[in-house]
Amino acid sequence: MGDAAVTIRTRKFMTNRLLYRRQMIVDVYHPGKATVAKTEIRERLGTMYKTTPDVIFCFGFKTQFGGGKTTGFALIYDTLDYAKKYEPKYRLARHGLYEVKKPSRKQRKERKNRQKKVRGTAKTKVGAGKK
Amino acid sequence: MDQHLPSQELGAIAPIVTTLLDGNVSSDDLSKVSSLFKGISNQVSAVTDFIQSILKKVENGESKTSKGISFLDVKYQLLLSYVIDLTHLMLMKSEGKKLEGDKTIERLVETRTVLEKMRPVDMKIRYQVDKLIKTATSGEIAPNDPRRFKPNPDNLVSKLQQEDSEEEGDDEDDAEDKGPQKYVPPKVSAMHFDGDLTVQEKKDRLIEKAKRRALSSSLIRELRDQYNEEPEEIAERGTAPTRKFHEAAKHQQEFEEGNFIRLPVTRKQKNLKRKGETMTGLEELTKFDNISALVDDSKGEERDTPAKKKSKVSSRVS
Lengths: 131, 318
Prior knowledge:
heterodimer, A: alpha+beta, 4-stranded antiparallel sheet, B: mainly alpha, 9 helices, 55% helix, Putative neuroguidin isoform X2 (chain B)
């Protein structure tokens, strides 16, 4: 599950009881390699903190100039239910737990043009009457 | 509650009892003693009735004793023990025993000193206690009423000739007393106000700043090192712009790590970064600092350069 050359260390570990999660800063050392994928980091963190990787959410990974070191954040939730409740939707969508439903582009533009003809609070009512 | 404690009567009896033991008995003293004894027994019966009614109330749960003032608790316990010790002394005297070296007297003295020490504190919280009793009996005032905790200036004057006359209790400021004020919306960030300066003063300041910057430029620094007689210092410090850049980067990193957030990168920052990574340093070789401010110039007013815009890295994170 990973070369010996890739080292993961965590900093500023904090248990956030209010949001039922553990949050930390993750430092990844990968000399001579490209930036490590988030999925592999999740698996490594899962073994480190003895959880399944599906409750671990990583984000914000930035590689330092010159390569070799990447810093990012990781949140480990107690259960997946809490994760679904407290995580922002875009991060859930990255894991496939959430789908943003929006109508097709053409319909959105048509709705906008219909709204342009009306003024004020009636704009919201216009969208409801899609033909 | 009967404030006229039986201890007062006891105190009145004590000298009479001692005279009895000395042997000089008069019928006046005897009549006084008997009347006093009768008074004591009446009072004691009245007090016991009262206390029993109160006890019944507490047992029935009519009056709650949970949220009392612990200071008053201590006070009445001390008073009780004082009275008990006094009665013990009376008993010993009436039996004809010696009081010398008795532990009761030590206890009495101790209790008395503690009560004396409690008296100034009692004076200070008297106002609060009275207010509490009033609210307890009337039960009207809302708990968040700020007028409850208004300071009473009469309490500042100490009635006991003690040194400290500080105020106790909450002093919440009554902002409503100032009247309706014009609403001033808060400004987003603090800006330097230079409306007091005239145009000439602003120009003078610009020239002064330019002079200061020119004095610390690399040209003048090298000249100074050349003609200076002090020993030469070599320090790896970095120029002021690089230091500023590093400080800003450190500030941003601390903010990001502290708040678990990544700040978006503006176009200007991206361009700056790209410029830093490429080999554009060759142009800087021929660029020297502007020391025109030190040069004696009569055309200073024509060269009004616009003020340099400060970098927005720090303003973004704050």
